[in-house]
Structure formats: C-alpha cells, structure tokens
Amino acid sequence: MEPQVTETEFTCKLITIRSKKSFAEVTSALEGLFRMVDLPKLASMTEAGDQAGIKGYFQEISGDHEFSIFFKLDQGSTQRLAGFPLDCRFYLIGNAVIVNGLFQYGATAGLGAPVRVCVSQQEGEDVRIDLDEPTAFFSQFPEMKESKVPGILDRDLVKHLIEFASSR
C-alpha cells in the first residue's frame, strides 16, 4: 500500500531582531538566562514516570522567565572552516510545561516546539536573531487553532529575545 501524501500551504512570518551588541554578548545573555536542559536527566525521569520530578526540574531551571534551551548547535565554527566568516548558533528553546497546551491538540506540535531560534553575525554586520513567528508557524495546523500557547510564545519568548539584543 502506498503512503498518502498531502501538502498544506501556509503563510509564515519571519521575525528578525537586529542588535549592535556583539555575537558573544547576545549569545552569553541568552545562555545566561535560559539554562540548558540536561537531556539524559530528563530521559531518566521520563523513563521512571516521574511527572512531578519533571515539572519541578523545569521550574528549577526555568525560573521566572519560563524558557530553557533544549538543544544548541554552533554552526558558525564549521562554516568558518569552510571559508565563510560568520558566527551562527542555532537553538531549540521552549517551555516543557506549557507545551502540553500544544500537544493536547496533536503530535505535529513537535515540528515547532521547542521553537527554532538562530543567532548569527556575518563579518562587518549587526547580530541578528531570527525565528518563525509561533502563531504563524502553528497556523498550518488547523487542529491547534484553539491553543493559546503560540500567542504566549509570541509574547514572552520574543520579548526575551528583544531584551537580549537590547543595548540596555
């Protein structure tokens, strides 16, 4: 039997935040506030069925700012080796507690949660922080239109990213 393939067109919106700060300043601010998730620890608690432990762990590492880094990849160092003078770091940033407000509508939430964020700086240019606007990204899934989570991500995550870029 052949698999069924469907294509869904949607309009996404790219949010770009530019900063006069250095790449190191922006990434240090981001990584200083948003702590890395210890994935082996999370896997162990999940395997043990420790729902309360997982919730407590995320409250501990997220604090008042709500978000954590699930993954980071330094793409710039490899690109520099290839002859492209740029700094580039890719992050998956999310909130393991509020994400339930997406997954309750469907497993496809995993395509955008955690949120993909790219911080980059080409030689001689300003730093940029880029991400797909969560409400626009999740609009491709009609089953998620009742979820309030994309709006929370738009408001809170983007606010933090603007603060990291701010010269204040």
Q: Which labels suit this protein?
A:
single chain, 168 residues, alpha+beta, 5-stranded antiparallel β-sheet, 7 helices
Topology of helices and strands:
Layout lengths: L13 E6 L3 H11 L5 H9 L3 H12 L5 E7 L1 H6 L4 E9 L5 H4 L11 E8 L4 E6 L1 H5 L10 H17 L3
Antiparallel strand pairs: 1-5, 2-3, 3-4, 4-5
Helix pairs in contact: 1-7
Structure characterization notes:
The protein has helices at 23-33, 39-47, 51-62, 76-81, 100-103, 134-138, 149-165, and strands at residues 14-19, 68-74, 86-94, 115-122, 127-132. The protein is α+β, with helices and mostly antiparallel strands and 168 residues long. The chain has a five-stranded antiparallel beta sheet with strand order 1-5-4-3-2. Helix 1 (23-33) packs across helix 7.
